[in-house]
Amino acid sequence: MFEWPADKLRRTKIRANLFLLTRWYSYRREFFWSLRILVALSVAALIVGYWRRLDSYLLSLSDAVIPELAIGVGAAITGIIAIAFSLSLFAIQQVADRGTPATLQAYARDLVLKLIYWVLAIFATICFAIALLKPDKDFRMAMATTGLLLLFASFVLLNLHFTRVVKFADPRYTVLRIFKQGQKQLRTLQAIRDRIDAEYQTREGKSERKS
């Protein structure tokens, strides 16, 4: 007697689960970005709310704490640069040996990876520059917050670097990049040819009018 409503309820639950999974898969990136922004805003709110307490705590420490913290963060970022790019280069070389040598060339010319490298280098330089500054009582909290934020931003860039290297590890991605570059060059040549044809036709028309 109660089998049909139970079956209907079970089918409804299955449909609801499928709907939730489909929506989750479709908007998973937006969810993670929203979560990251929410976490960043929460951390910023906590820092602003407890700024005076943290500042008073840092004032109770010795003057060498802030320079040592800045040097440690700068050294950590420098280590991230050395280890991440060395290991990724080794992995790309292995992929290039098994696939196409164009993978290594595309990796070396990638603008995103170059930008990540120079941003990390600038972060490390800023940290070492902070270590050279005099830890004034009014700016201790600002110096410590800057160093920690640069370290956190380095981790974000490291994640972006890892995602980028994984793409280059797939030979299909390199082939697709070369294909798109070839299409772009063909469109450029087509535009140049059309412009030359238009100029030639214009000159021919003027010469016919003069004759």
Please summarize what this structure is.
The protein has 211 residues and is mainly alpha-helical. The protein has eight helices and no strands. Helix 4 packs antiparallel against helix 5 (102-109), helix 4 (65-98) runs antiparallel to helix 6 and helix 4 (65-98) runs parallel beside helix 7 (140-168).
Layout of helices and strands, plus pairs?
Layout: H1 3-26, H2 28-49, H3 51-59, H4 65-98, H5 102-109, H6 111-132, H7 140-168, H8 171-210
Helix pairs in contact: 4-5, 4-6, 4-7, 6-7
Tell me what the structure shows:
With 211 residues, the chain is mostly helical. The protein has three domains: 1-49; 62-169, no CATH class; 172-211. The protein has eight helices and no strands. The protein has helices at residues 3-26, 28-49, 51-59, 65-98, 102-109, 111-132, 140-168, 171-210. α4 packs antiparallel against α5, α4 runs antiparallel to α6 (111-132) and α6 (111-132) runs antiparallel to α7 (140-168). The longest helix has 40 residues, at 171-210. It starts with a helix and ends with a helix. The mean pLDDT is 78.
The helix content, as a percent range, equals over 70%
User: What gross morphology would you assign?
Assistant: extended
The biggest sheet amounts to: none
Number of domains: 3
Average pLDDT, all residues? 78
Structural class, by secondary structure, is: mainly alpha
β-strand percent reads: under 5%
Order of helices and strands: HHHHHHHH
Report the end-to-end length measured between terminal Cα atoms.
100 Å
Low-confidence stretches: none
Oligomer: single chain
Work out the number of β strands.
0
| Count of runs of 4 or more consecutive helical residues | 8
The radius of gyration over CA amounts to 29 Å
